[in-house]
Amino acid sequence: MLGTWRRLSGSWPGRLLVSAAVWLRAPYFLTAAPMIRSLEPGRAEVSLRNWWLVHNHLGTVHAIASCNLAEYAMGVLAEATTPATHRWIPRGMSVQYLAKADTDLLAVATFPHPPAFSAEREDADADITITDARGQEVVHATITLRIAPRPARLPVAA
């Protein structure tokens, strides 16, 4: 994913294409339609447009749309950071709703303590800060990932 991002992120259509590829791989994200703004190992920035498909009954960004944004940001962070020798899966999520989200949103995901990617499985926390267009933090999430070496492939019998 990181290589594709580096090749295509220089233009808006390229960023859309990479973001949409994630939507297709995990169709649950289609209604929120988050867009990757910046991606590198250890850090991801993802935006969410404030539009009617993510609204709650109050006309603000729904709490679960914010969770979707946090999970999307964590996912692209994990993909960009985890070497091909390892795999990851979310194990848990803690979310704090700090303020009403009534503008477009920006999620910044990082690993405060980068994973070691050792031969043993490990848990690592991704820290996600979601701010509104005014720069106010509206949601804070921590997602715990289980990271483990990929199992060895068995040889194909001839």
Q: What number of domains?
A: 1
The profile of the biggest β sheet is: 6 strands, antiparallel
- Form type: globular
Q: Write down the CATH class.
A: Alpha Beta
Total of DSSP H or I helical runs spanning 4+ residues: 3
* Rounded Rg: 16 Å
Regions with little confidence, pLDDT below 50 for 5+ residues: none
> What would CATH call the homologous superfamily?
Hotdog Thioesterase
Count of strand segments: 6
Order of helices and strands: HHEEHEEEE
Strand order across the biggest sheet?
A: 1-2-4-5-6-3
| Helicity, as a percent range | 25-40%
From the 3D coordinates, which CATH architecture would you assign?
Roll
> What structural class is derived from the secondary structure elements?
alpha+beta
Distance between the termini: 33 Å
Indicate the mean pLDDT. Answer: 93
* CATH structural fold name: Thiol Ester Dehydrase, Chain A
